[in-house]
Specification:
By secondary structure, this protein is of the alpha+beta class. The strands form two sheets. It has a four-stranded antiparallel beta sheet with strand order 1-2-7-6, with no helix packed on it. Strands 3-4-5 form a three-stranded antiparallel beta sheet, with no helix packed on it. A hairpin with a 2-residue loop joins strand 6 and strand 7. The radius of gyration is 24 Å and the shape is flat. The N and C termini lie far apart (about 75 Å). About 10% of the residues are buried.
Length: about 150
């Protein structure tokens, strides 16, 4: 049977499928929010900047590197490699590994540019904590009302 409006209906069907897909992603998208390469992070925003916490158990301070590039905090971890001369017989057999120990790089974008001169980082108890400073020009100011 010939329907002259069949072709006109095709874009509407495509949009409907796209809408259904978007709804599905909204429903299950939260399953993938935490998936990324590298350690897990918490990011807190305040008037003066942000605080970024990264779970880095087993990394020493000298194995971690923090850089600020415009509005992005770049954090790298480079663990020491196992000694090449140690024999396989002396190495314990890994039964289960849930804590990642390889090199990583996390790029955490913030909603403001970073003042690298006033940003500080500390490493304590397996957590890297970076206090990210906002440039003075971007910090809110209270304006007196006359």
């Amino acid at each position: 049977m010939f329907t002259p409006f069949f072709e006109l209906d095709a874009p509407v069907r495509s949009l409907r499928r796209l809408s259904n897909f978007a709804r599905l992603m909204d429903e299950v998208g939260h399953w993938f929010e935490g998936s990324h390469d590298g350690p897990q992070a918490n990011v807190y925003i305040n008037d003066h900047g942000a605080v970024v916490q990264l779970a880095v158990p087993g990394y020493r301070r000298e194995q971690l590197h923090v850089e600020a590039e415009r509005d992005t905090l770049i954090i790298r971890g480079e663990p020491e490699q196992a000694a090449a001369d140690s024999s396989e017989a002396t190495q314990p057999h890994m039964l289960r590994q849930e804590i990642a120990r390889g090199p990583f790089m996390r790029r955490i974008q913030l909603p403001f540019s970073i003042d690298g001169e006033h940003t500080e980082a500390r490493h304590e108890n397996g957590v890297l904590c970076v206090a990210v400073a906002k440039p003075k020009a971007e910090q809110p100011r209270r304006i007196a009302i006359a």
